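User: Structure with 6-O-phosphono-beta-D-glucopyranose, tokens only please.
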Amino acid sequence: GEYKMAFKKDFLWGGATAANQCEGGSNEGKRGLANVDLMPLGKERYLVGTGKKKMYEFNENYFYPALTAVDFYHHYKEDIALFAEMGFKTFRLSIAWTRIFPNGDEQTPNEEGLKFYEDVFKECHKYGIEPLVTLNHFDCPMHLVKTIGGWRSREMITHFLKLCKVLFNRYKGLVKYWLTFNEINMILHFPFVAAGIYFEENENNTQATITAVHHQLVASALVTKMAHEINQENQIGCMVAAGSYYPETCKPEDYWKAICDNREVYMFTDVQARGYYPNYAIKWIEKRNAIIPFAKEDKEILKNNTVDFVSFSYYSSRVSSSDEDKGNQSESNIFSSAINPYLKTSQWGWAIDPLGFRSTINELYDRYQKPLFVVENGLGAKDTVAEDGSIHDEYRIEYLREHIRSMKAAVEEDGVEIMGYTTWGCIDLISNGTGEVAKRYGFIYVDRDNLGNGSYQRKKKDSFY
Ligand code: BG6
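Assistant:
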């Protein structure tokens, strides 16, 4: 009957990747240098991502995993055929900005880059796979980092809109699902990765961050408007790194801390889905002696161009503690957390919490009443190839099974509207946080080690089946 909730027939099941973590081919097709190319393997990766160490060009003392990644650039036909064999209905990928505009500020796009993605999208459609395209997944041309300081400059909006206009026109009829900025809240934790910004000495870091955030939020709204104008079929989503914060105890201070921590996630999507900065965000910014750099028309732009759906990544729940030391005991996806004694963790220490997935889904749906799209969920783990070539990744199967069950409950029992679900790293790829390939997420194994050695051959894991 009317109240019986179920997965939609056209539910978009599939997998997700990002250009810099997957493509490689970084010197091919006249591609330019991007911020994420300069993220090294090893301890310094975190320092560069947070801007504590500045990397403007390659340094021979480091290894840069994005340069070859898993070579999707040359393997895409084979990879998409494997996705089709698994029954994918959608494939999430991102556009490498510097394939289209190598420096970011050119007037004419690079045809080779445009042709590459056109071929990829056509290959998807051959199998009835609908592309889901992230316009910006941790990706900023280094030329724009060097010349205008990345997203701290309002000029970025113009360059980004120019990119999006080219993409929307060129891929009309091939792509209709788009995400603006991947994990837009990551900017608070990984500012160089998320926005190409490095802090200057003695500057108010919050001011620099909020300036960049505001520019991205205005860009996101303008891109939403443009997408709808160019093609009425286009559907645009925002994307946030989600995962509810639980209070560590029922102590009121812990609960209050959890509210505050959750708001550091919501304050981005609140603007994108509701069309204005909530009061608590304005106060949060004020308290840190910063201001939102509104231009005259910005409030109208934000108000009139909210997203069609809300997408998010979910790996773990998080735990808030009013005791700062405890609050930083653990980490998942760059978000610090207190330890949750009720949960097991992954080999990288990320808490595994399928029920937390259901809670997170419900909280986002209650808040926005817009369709949700789960665009990342998965388990990073070490895999072993047995002598006969098989890979028994029952831990990954279990993680995904439990999370899918939880999502099913959110749909069938709670009545949440979900458009689709893409697992992170449907094929092994470079880890954003650590730069390793050994932190494997895929159903498809790629024969490549952390230092880029290997045949890059693809193998099916048990989870593939
Ligand atoms: C999200 C990102 O942060 O989580 C991905 O959108 C990332 O780019 C994924 O790869 C998993 O994190 P990690 O650090 O294990 O790669």
